[in-house]
Amino acid sequence: MALINPYLNFLGNTEEAFNFYKSVFGGEFAMVMRFGDTEHGANLPEEDRSKIMHIALPIGGNMLMATDCLASMGQDLNFGNNFSISVHGDTLEHSQALFDGLSAGGKEIMPFKKEFWGDYFGNFFDKFGVQWMVNYREMN
User: Fold this and answer.
1) Please, what's the b/e burial string for 6-33 (b: 16 or more CB within 10 A of its CB; e: otherwise)?
2) Is residue 99 within 8 Å of residue 91, measured between CB atoms?
3) Where are the alpha helices (DSSP H) in the chain?
4) Which residue, 39, 45, 84, 87, is the most exposed by fewest CB within 10 angstroms?
5) SS3 assignment, position 106
């Protein structure tokens, strides 16, 4: 069974938004990664390095996740791309099949492949304009 979570995009105020959500829902962040912590962080403008690349807040059995969109990386925020549906397959093969099936007839943003943080990841707009992210984490 696939796991689906909402993934939000913000214009530089992800940390503020998620501190607010945390104050309402409670709990602790499962992950906070800043752009400056990535392999390309040193190439970004100083003001973007402290921005949020990925944050996750567990809420019940779900995870609310988000990122900051950076103009320095050619990203902008418009109606329709301010959120994604993040889906996690049960296996690598299942995740690849979800990516292939959902992206058919759509527009690929990033191919589904192993990324520098260790997970398999890809994202795209489906043929209806909905933005999806497919992720798979190998468990050791």
Assistant:
1) ebbbbebebbebbeebbeeeeeeeeeee
2) no
3) 14-25, 46-49, 92-103
4) 39
5) coil
What does the pLDDT profile of the chain (140 residues) look like in tens digits? 778 889 988 888 899 999 989 987 889 999 999 999 988 888 899 999 999 999 999 988 889 999 998 877 777 777 666 788 898 888 999 999 999 998 999 999 999 999 998 999 999 998 867 788 999 998 86
| Model confidence, pTM | 0.70
- Secondary structure letter of residue 17 according to DSSP: H
**Domain 3-41+48-104, second-level architecture:** 2-Layer Sandwich (3.30)
The Cα–Cα gap between 80 and 131 comes to: 8
